[in-house]
Amino acid sequence: MTTGEKGLTLIKKWEGCTLKAYKLTGEKYYTIGYGHSFDTSITAGTVWTKQQAEAALKKDLQKFEGYVTADVPLPLNQHQFDALVSYCYNRGRGGLRQLVAACKTLADYPAKMVELWGSATRYKTGLINRRKAEAALFVEPVLLTYPVPARTLRKGCKGDDVKWVQQRLNVEGAGLSVDGDFGALTRAAVIEYRLRHGLAVDGIVGPVTRKALGATT
Q: Which of 5, 15, 27, 134 is catalytic?
């Protein structure tokens, strides 16, 4: 996964963009752009354009996206992934691993993100507010843009309406590939979902399952 638009917006808001290099008290490295640091090529006289700041952010995010992918042992939807990339971008890989160790389920993350806000007491209020914003994004439902199924879906079906089901199941933590192919894994996820919600366990997505998954028609 890569950082989505909401994640980028959140990171840019809380990092801010400074086009002239600066050094915080006690820090070894200069910082520039959207929090770009730990770079010996940045000196006291370095000045960037907005385009350079944007390019550096995109490149820097690749590292933190990799940390989230490698260190979080649970399937994530786009908003959950974005929130954790922002958290890691600010707290580093050590902070992310501390958070992961404190959480057993996805439901644990929002509160723990705020609880494990960081250690820079001088900036505590701002960091806690950032953690709250990340936690809010983490629990925000992902907007589903695929068409709601108008037919009964079962193993072997293919199409964008299958993608709708897969995305809805992923909101519940299924971890499916949204490929529009109702294969064995999708069928197993449907059975598991229906079992948890007290529905007949038949591996089929009909009107009852569609409604349970959030369809309004």
A: 15
Q: CA 99 to CA 91: how far, in whole Å?
A: 10
Start-to-end C-alpha separation, the chain: 31
CB-CB neighbours of 1 under 10 Å? 14
Residue among 209, 77, 75, 216 nearest 147 (CA):
216
Half-sphere exposure of 201 (CA within 13 A, CB side): 9
Q: What is the pTM of this model?
A: 0.69
pLDDT in tens, 82-135: 999 999 999 999 999 999 999 999 999 999 999 999 998 989 999 999 999 999
> Amino acid identity, residue 48?
W
d(CA 108, CA 92): 20
* 3-state SS, residue 198: coil
Rounded CA separation 48/56 (Å) = 10
Task: Give the pLDDT confidence score for residue 217 in this predicted structure.
Answer: 67
Mean pLDDT is lowest, of 27-36, 136-145, 188-197, for: 136-145
- In whole angstroms, what is the distance from residue 44 CA to residue 20 CA? 8
Task: Based on the residue annotation, tell me whether 140 is a catalytic residue of this protein.
Answer: no
Provide, rounded to the nearest whole percent, the portion of the chain with pLDDT above 70: 99
